Amino acid sequence: MDHSSGIRASLAGRYATALFALAKENNSIDAVQSSLGTLNEAMAESDDLRALTTSPVLTRDDAGKAIAATAKTLGLDKLSTNVLGVLAANRRLDQIPAVIRAFSTLASDHRGEITAEVTSAHPLDDKQIDALKAQLKKRVGSDVSVTTTVDSSILGGLVVKIGSQMIDSSIKTRLNTLSQAMKG
Predict the structure, then answer these.
(1) Torsion of CA 69, 71, 74, 79, to 10 degrees
(2) Residue 23 class from Cβ within 10 Å (0-12 exposed, 13-18 middle, 19+ buried)?
(3) Per-residue pLDDT tens for 92-134?
(4) Total Cβ atoms within 10 A of residue 55
(5) What crossing angle do the helices spanning 60-74 and 29-45 adopt, rounded to 10°?
């Protein structure tokens, strides 16, 4: 499935497309994707990092210095660090999660994989992710790349999005369905 034209239509998609083109040119798609995964995990775990990316009071210069220091601490590759610098200079650090998702989709398309966005109430470990990939591969018939996010509001279970399909087995949805059934 080719997502590239839809991705390029968004602001974050344009950054991700440029980053992907540079990564492809430098044979570093895997390194960039690994760095972006590290950054995504750090953002999920750190309130301070999330605040940095959404703070309107930081100057461009301060945001640039802070994100460069963060990239160095996390050991991110040069291309990812440079794109983060551009995002900071353009006051677009809030676009980081969308850039990560778009880059992941482009990299998966490049490898012939399908991307699944998985939301869980708690972080999934590697064993759980591998089991999920195996189940999704059986369902869709090809390799599946999984990007995970944590949203405690779903209470439990998973929400899996593959293209336009959504599999919602979250406890929140089940409770809402039960509530509606009891009312009517």
Answers:
(1) -150
(2) buried
(3) 999 999 999 899 889 988 988 888 899 999 889 999 999 999 9
(4) 13
(5) 110
